[in-house]
Design brief:
This protein is an alpha/beta fold and 341 residues long. Helix content is 34%, strand content 14%. It has two domains: 81 residues, no CATH class; 240 residues, Aldolase class I (TIM Barrel), CATH 3.20.20. Bound molecules: iron/sulfur cluster (SF4). Iron/sulfur cluster (SF4) binds next to loops.
Length: 341
């Protein structure tokens, strides 16, 4: 099981709530049987849910739960969060660190794989635990800097003027408090060669109330250009509350992009992918990447073979204008960018 404590930012995710989104974060479902009961799944799902939960704990906030159809074990949102017994099955080629990130961590909380940009682990916590997550085994305990350690990490950025972009990742970076994020952004802004702040997050989707005035305050006032890459895999994830959150981000000058993972039984059909692109654009989000699954142990049952993925994308291209087409990619360890399929 992933245990993401004791870590300062993890504690923030579970300390007594001080606002709407914090309360929702703290109140997320963390019991697999409760998840099954709340969604009227019969008892045959319980043993598998317990098995998967023991490997990677279940976590589902209420705002996301509300978009899942009760009584339907095949609901595409449920499939993303329901632990299954298959997660305990070993599969050839599936490993704990499929992207070999441990080899690209020169400072605590910093991953430097690509030219011109670095990734900062701004929070070890997530609001939701996605069963296919390539970081489901990530050693957050070793990569969550204290404030003093952030100084060393920021020195790394300061010393390399080829770095123009800082990417907040996690966990989910927006699971950190606004105070923590504003502190970090203030220091990034002071590095003259940094131009952009990119934030990879699922929080505006799973708890749309996260996009509140406190967040928009620091985000709206930074000199850095702002890009937010949302992680949305199915059109049912985008309800009116998500659209409203996206509108607020857009008004604060944030460019919104989306990356999806191609997941067997969830979005591996042309109708769903076409509806996803259309729905994203209605929310003001441009489709960006469609990733094939990273081979992380516990997630092999989500795999879509490359040939099937290529056929899907070729069919999708017949349906959509070019600007709604995500690029089908794979992340290959050691490559200097994502690899188009
Ligand atoms: S929110 Fe992102 S980092 Fe967290 S479990 Fe889901 S995919 Fe992984």
């Amino acid at each position: 099981m992933i245990t993401r404590s004791p870590i300062p930012l993890q504690r923030q995710a579970s300390t007594p709530a001080t606002g709407a989104w914090q309360a929702q974060l703290a109140g997320a479902i963390r019991d697999p049987q409760e998840l099954c009961r709340r969604l009227a799944l019969d008892e045959r799902w319980w043993p598998g849910a317990e098995t998967g939960h023991a490997l990677f704990e279940v976590r589902v906030p209420e705002a996301y739960l509300a978009r899942i159809r009760p009584g339907d074990p095949h609901d595409p949102l449920l499939r993303q969060v329901l632990p299954l017994g298959e997660e305990a099955e070993a599969a050839p080629g599936y490993v704990a660190d499929p992207l070999e990130e441990a080899d690209h961590t020169p400072r605590r909380g910093l991953i430097h794989k690509y030219a011109g940009r670095v990734l900062l682990i701004a929070s070890p916590a997530c609001a939701i635990n996605c069963r296919y997550c390539f970081r489901r085994h990530f050693p957050y305990e070793e990569n969550a800097p204290s404030r003093a350690q952030w100084t060393d990490t920021l020195d790394y950025l300061r010393a390399d003027d080829s770095i123009h972009e800082a990417i907040f990742s996690g966990g989910d970076p927006l699971a950190a408090s606004d105070r923590q994020l504003a502190w970090l952004v203030e220091r990034l802004e002071a590095i003259p060669h940094l131009k952009r702040l990119r934030i990879h997050t699922r929080l505006p989707v799973v708890i749309p109330d996260r996009i509140d005035d406190a967040l928009l305050d620091w985000l709206g006032h930074t000199r850095l250009q702002k890009v937010m890459v949302l992680h949305i895999n199915h059109p049912n994830e985008i309800d009116e509350t998500v659209i409203d959150a996206c509108r607020r981000l857009h008004d604060a000058g944030v460019t919104l992009l989306n990356q999806s993972v191609l997941l067997a039984g969830i979005n591996d059909d042309v109708d769903t992918l076409a509806a996803l692109s259309e729905r994203l654009f209605e929310a003001g989000i441009l489709p960006y990447y469609l990733h094939v699954l990273d081979p992380v142990s516990g997630a092999a049952h989500f795999d879509v073979p490359d040939d099937a993925a290529r056929i899907l994308v070729a069919e999708l291209r017949k349906r959509l204008p070019g600007f709604l087409m995500p690029t089908l990619v794979r992340e290959v360890p050691g490559e200097t960018s994502k690899t188009p399929l």
